[in-house]
Every structure is written in structure tokens, then in C-alpha cells.
Amino acid sequence: MEQSLSKVTEALGYKIERAHAYDPINQHGFIASQREGMDIFSKIDRTMPIIVAEAVWQYSHHVLAGLISHKGPILTLANWSGTWPGLVGMLNLNGSLTKAGVAYSSLWSEDFENDPLFEKQFKNWLEQGAVSQDTSHVKPYDQSASLSSDSLKIVDSIVADLDQNKAILGVFDEFCMGMYNATIPDELLFKMGVYKERLSQSALYAGMKNVSEAEAQAVFKWIESKGFNFHFGEDESTELTQAQVIEQCRMYIAACRIGAEFGCDAIGIQYQQGLKDICPASDLVEGMLNSSDRPPVKDGNGKVIFEGEPFTHFNEVDECCGLDALITKRLNKALGEPLEITLHDLRWGDFDPTGTTDQYVWVLLISGAAPIEHHIGGWKGSHGYRQPAMYFPKGGSTLHGVAKVGEIIWSRIYIEEGLLRMDIGLGGVIELPESETRRRLEETTPQWPIMHAVTYGVSRDQMMARHKANHLNVVYSKNEASALKSLMAKAELAQKLGIEVFICGTQKEGSIIE
């Protein structure tokens, strides 16, 4: 990537100077800590144009301090690859810069040396210090006449209930992997009646130790009875073992009980980096929490916790997704719509080379937190693979599956100009040939759940130009009509809670969302 970008830059009459040296000991050229980033930026002329080149997932806070202080033009730039997801890292950095009020431009390309549009836009940035992108698919939400009186009553009742009775986001340690964009200042939540309960991953780990072997085994047997396909081996350093899964069952029970003890409406577990060196991954736990069909867990009074519905979980403690999921679940429950919500990484995308569709199909992928109801075949159609050892040294099962065909609503809450904002749109999950699904999995992380998503009226470049995070939330709707109804009701609910809402894209057939 660096070599290709340098060639393009020099062809345009400019030269790139690397801000920090390659590390021969660790054998990489990445900025590996916040302190290292601060030290590197302390030696950079603050008025110079700077390019932050992203070829992998990264921790935004390693460079955030330097970029906040920088006075010259900033370009965040990403490759386009599922295997080396620089685009995911760039989206997170963009969301963090947006929250911090830092001006920047963004570019991306599959092939820097053979991309005329990229070259044109890059030339503009080099000459002018900024480049604009097409965001014509976005419009501010204005209450629609299509909202029925019943929908308005539901919205008003939820707003009133939150004001009167409040709600709690349970946070098992904030700031996962440096995601500054994923933490919401408390005062932005207060006005809508939502509060955080700061929980500790140390308490979660201690709670796991208090779960009996019999209780953990009962959850494990429940999962097996559903026909879930565990792929066990013997070498725990590289393969999934039953012992790892039993620890995950303990975490599931402990998370339910702690969340219930503190009256949480939704919970988020950081896991990375706080727990990764002491216990298996939380992703199977998170997928079960987000499912309605899940092992029952009783609280201290013998009552099943959120019986028959999800105990909503926001992966990687992304509080923006947690807030979104909290209000979505309340709304969908009142509307009689599905309650199972998850976030995904906007991991990558491509056209289908087999020609089954001419639509651009996104790869929505997450490390395992997708609910079982989203998968083709439910429990029987889903698989448990060991998490990749590079990221998850203690292993643990994923909750892998291929998302079923259906209509979805996608959304993202983010912070800009000190305000909570929401982008929301309609989409669909489509079926691709097995060979194409396999290609996409092998290009990304095959152990993880995948969704073949189409965003109606939003192109690849429009999504990249606008989106302010690596994550987005998705929830299914019963059909096209109910998806539109739910989207409009959710937009109205969010706006009445003080969130500035933007409608993105169109309806499935291309008509305006209204």
C-alpha cells in the first residue's frame, strides 16, 4: 500500500515522507501505543499536510492526540480489502475525529495505481487540502404524514416511560480497543432518561468463578440440544475445546445475573483487551444474549431473566450501538417486530462475480455476537469455531452463521458537534451462491457470522463518505411495508429523544423514504 501510494504521489509531483521508522525488532511499521503516537507527532510540523494510511484494523487513540493538535490538512486513507481491513480502521478513526471536532478528508481504493477517480480526488487534496464526497443520499428527517396515530402513540409512550422510569446501559469497562467514537458522554444520555451503570470486567470474571460446574454444564447441554455444531479439537492453543466453551457458559450466566442485579436494560462487555489474556472470548456469550431463543438464567429470586427475549448486548461496549439497540427493542416490542438486534462491522464489500445480482453487496461481519434468529437454520444451521489465536489467545467459540434473506433497517448513532445524531436507512439481506459466500468468508474471517447486505439507494462510496463508525446496527423487519413503518417510527422516536436524525437512501424500489 505504502509503495503504491508513494508512486501515485510522486507521479503527481509530490513526495511522501514517513513520519516514523519501520521497527526491525517487532517487524512492523505500525504505531503501537498512545504514547508512541504522541512522541511521533511531537516531531511533526503541525502545519504540514498529513496522511493517515490504514491497511489494517487499528486503535484510533494511538494517533488521535496528534491529529487533534494538528493544524495542517488531514487525509485518512484506506485500502479496500476484506483480509486487510484498513477501511474498518479508517471508519473508526473518522468517527473519532468527527466526535473530537477535527476536520479531515477521506479516500479509499482497491488499486491506488490504477484508479482514475482516486487519482483525481487525491490530486485535489494535495492541491487544495480537502476533497468532497457525494452524500446526496442523505436528508434530515422531518416528521412524515405516513406515521399513523398508533405509531405516534407508541413513540410518545416510550419517550414518557424513559422520562419517568429511566433506563440503564450496563457497561463492563469502556473504551474497547481505543474506540473513542463509541463512548457517549453521560450528559447526552441524561436528557432522554438513559444512564450508565459502570460495571467491572473484574466483577464479571469473579462472577464466572461463582458459577457452578453444574450450571455451566446445563447451559452447554442446552446449546447442544438445539443442534448447534461445535467444531472441537484437542490443542487448545489453536483449536476449540469443550473446556473453553464451559468457561463461556459461565460468563453467560454471570453476565445475565450481574446485569439483572443492577437493573440493566442492555449490557456491553469490553473483552478486548481487559479479558483476552485470562478467559475465552465473549462472542458466543454475546450472540446468546442477543437471541430470544437462548438458555434460561434465573436471578437471585428465581425469576428467569428477560424470559423469551434478548438481554440486549452491545459488542465491544459500543455505547452508540447500545443506545440504538435499547430504543429499537422497546419500539419493536410495541410494534410486534423482531427484537433481535446486533451490530456488525462494515467489513468490506464487492459485486458478485458469479452474476446472480448486479447490486453491490456488503460483507457485514462481527466476531460472533449475531443473534441466532438472524441465521439460516437457526441453531442447527450455525457453527462454533475457535476464535483466531492471534486475537484471542484463550480461544472460545464463535457463533458463526449465514444471515437469512429478509428486509432490514440499518442505523448508526454517532456524536458530531457535541450532539447525538443518527443515520438510518433500509436494506435487504440477499442470498448468494455457496461458493461466493465461501469466497467472502475466506477473504475476511471465516469463523465469524456473515450478512450479505444491500443498502437501498446508498452506493459503496456514499456509505464510505458518510458513515462515522466501523460498526452499524441491523434489525430485521417482517416485510417491506413493516420495515418502512418501523424506520419512520424509529426516526420519530430518536428525534423526540433529542437525537438529530438523517434518512439515508431510498426504499427498495427506489422511491423516497417518507
Class from secondary-structure proportions: alpha/beta
Q: Radius of gyration in whole Å, from Cα?
A: 23 Å
CATH architecture of the largest domain: Alpha-Beta Barrel
Name the overall outline.
globular
Oligomer: single chain
Going across the major beta sheet, what is the strand order?
9-10-14-13-12-15
**Full CATH superfamily name of the largest domain:** L-fucose/L-arabinose isomerase, C-terminal
Percent of residues in helical segments? 25-40%
Number of domains: 2
- Summarize the main sheet: 6 strands, antiparallel, barrel
Quickly name the level 1 CATH class of the largest domain. Answer: Alpha Beta
- The residue ranges in which pLDDT falls below 50 over 5 or more consecutive positions are none
Beta strand %: 15-25%
Mean pLDDT: 97
Q: Supply the number of helical segments.
A: 15
Might you state the CATH topology name of the largest domain? Answer: L-fucose Isomerase, Chain A, domain 3
How would you describe this protein?
With 514 residues, the chain is an alpha/beta fold. It folds into 2 domains: 2-128, Rossmann fold, CATH 3.40.50; 149-504, L-fucose/L-arabinose isomerase, C-terminal (L-fucose Isomerase, Chain A, domain 3). It has helices spanning 2-11, 34-41, 61-69, 86-100, 116-128, 149-165, 186-190, 201-209, 213-225, 242-261, 283-289, 319-335, 434-443, 460-466, 480-496; strands spanning 50-54, 74-79, 105-109, 138-140, 167-172, 194-199, 229-230, 266-269, 341-350, 361-365, 383-384, 406-416, 419-429, 450-455, 471-477, 500-504. The strands form 4 sheets. Strands 9-10-14-13-12-15 form a 6-stranded antiparallel barrel, surrounded by 4 helices. It has a 3-stranded parallel β-sheet with strand order 1-2-3. A 3-stranded parallel β-sheet has the order 6-5-8, sandwiched between helices. The longest helix is centred in the middle third of the chain and has 20 residues, at 242-261. The protein is globular, with a radius of gyration of 23 Å.
